[in-house]
Amino acid sequence: MPRLALLVRAALSLLSMAAATAQVAWQEHPLLSPGPAPRQEWQLAFHEAIGRTVLFGGPAVGGGWLNDTWAWDGIAWQQQFPAQSPPGARYQLVYDATRAVVLAIGEPDPSQVWQYDGITWTQRFPTAAPPARGAFRMAYDRARSRVALFGGQTYTP
User: Is residue 9 part of a domain?
Assistant: First the structure.
């Protein structure tokens, strides 16, 4: 498909989504429990198997990295206490429906892979990984039962 046609389709898709969401009003909900500490560049993924949104780590506002895990059930935050957690670093999160886990992929090192099953984090050791990169994004492809990692910037230490 020509590049212009792809851009037009993408623009029409965005306009369609904007029209659909324009009819939905945002509402602020008071917190019923203390939530996660303030942080920057946090990542979330909805864990379908446990029906909760998972937040992991991120850089603390005062400096340093957090490696805590929190779950949002739509009403309140609950801190999770897994037996094992990834080290504090930058990760991108995505839900893998085939394995029923949230994956945390390291940034800038995509070979750093952890999975969260709703109870604990387990480190995975992929046989292949893309080259080092930052600011990439991921999505789950249900038709192919795969996680797609795309974009980003080349990382040179």
Answer: no
Q: What percent of the chain has pLDDT over 90?
A: 58
Residue 46 inside a domain? The answer is: yes
pLDDT on residue 25: 80
Output the pTM of the full model: 0.79
CATH number of 41's domain: 2.120.10.80
Q: What is the 3-state secondary structure (H, E, C) of the chain?
A: CCHHHHHHHHHHHHHHHHHHHCCCCCCCCCCCCCCCCCECCCEEEEECCCCEEEEEEEEECCCCEEEEEEEECCCCEEEECCCCCCCCCCEEEEEECCCCEEEEEECCCCCCEEEECCCCEEEECCCCCCCCEECCEEEEECCCCEEEEECCEECCC
26 domain-assigned: no
Range of the domain at 125: 34-154
**Residue 11, in any domain of the structure:** no
Give the pLDDT score at 29: 74
pLDDT average, residue stretch 47-66: 95
